[in-house]
Specification:
By secondary structure, the protein is mostly helical. It contains nine helices and no strands.
Length: 204
């Protein structure tokens, strides 16, 4: 491997952030909005707000022809939620609202796992901070497959937690399984993302 790290900006003589960068977490904002609003308002409000947020986040990349699977997936997911919210009967709407977070987490897991078949979704963000000459390197691919698989497993782990919160349907269960446990898992994944990319830089 080159003495220059994949996540080291020295290759183009400028400072480059390591790893996927902050934009990958910005892409999660519509999903967080959806969870917050679905809990405190209606499914319709949550779906529409999340869809608008997803469009706002994705449009710059779409115009630049640098679309990202996570952002496009969010648009499709919340468009689907919006259709269900306005078209479904009250009973179906109530059921979807109760288990909306579990459905959203499952969709995130599907998006992440599916991206492994083509291009790991973290790689689409990492390319914005990694010199182009490294994009096709085995190390770059390996790191991003590792990161994407980790995030996919975290999203999968959120599904039973959200299902349990929906089934119990109590304030304590909501706090524990819809917020506390997911926050711990996402924080751990974010720390691991930083650690993995930092380790690559130290190994260079």
């Amino acid at each position: 491997m080159s003495t220059t790290s994949l996540f080291d900006g020295r290759a183009d003589h400028s400072r480059i952030d390591r790893g996927p960068g902050i934009k990958i977490y910005v892409a999660f904002i519509p999903w967080v909005m959806f969870s917050l609003i679905a809990r405190h308002s209606t499914l319709r409000a949550a779906a529409v707000a999340a869809l608008v947020g997803a469009l706002v986040i994705a449009l710059p990349a779409i115009y630049a022809r640098r679309t990202k699977v996570l952002e496009i997936g969010a648009i499709l997911a919340f468009a689907g939620f919006t259709i269900v919210a306005f078209a479904a009967d009250p009973a179906t709407g109530d059921w979807v609202a109760r288990y909306a977070r579990a459905i959203a987490a499952a969709l995130l897991a599907v998006i992440a796992f599916s991206s492994l078949l083509v291009s790991p979704f973290t790689a689409q963000y990492a390319r914005e901070s990694v010199p182009r000459q490294f994009w096709s390197s085995p190390r770059f691919t390996q790191i991003n497959r590792q990161l994407t698989l980790m995030w996919a497993l975290v999203f999968t782990a959120l599904v039973p937690a959200h299902l349990l919160a929906g089934a119990l349907n109590t304030s304590r269960a909501n706090l524990l399984f819809n917020w506390a446990l997911p926050a711990v898992l996402v924080f751990w994944a974010a720390k691991r993302t930083s650690a993995i990319t930092a380790a690559d830089g130290q190994a260079a």
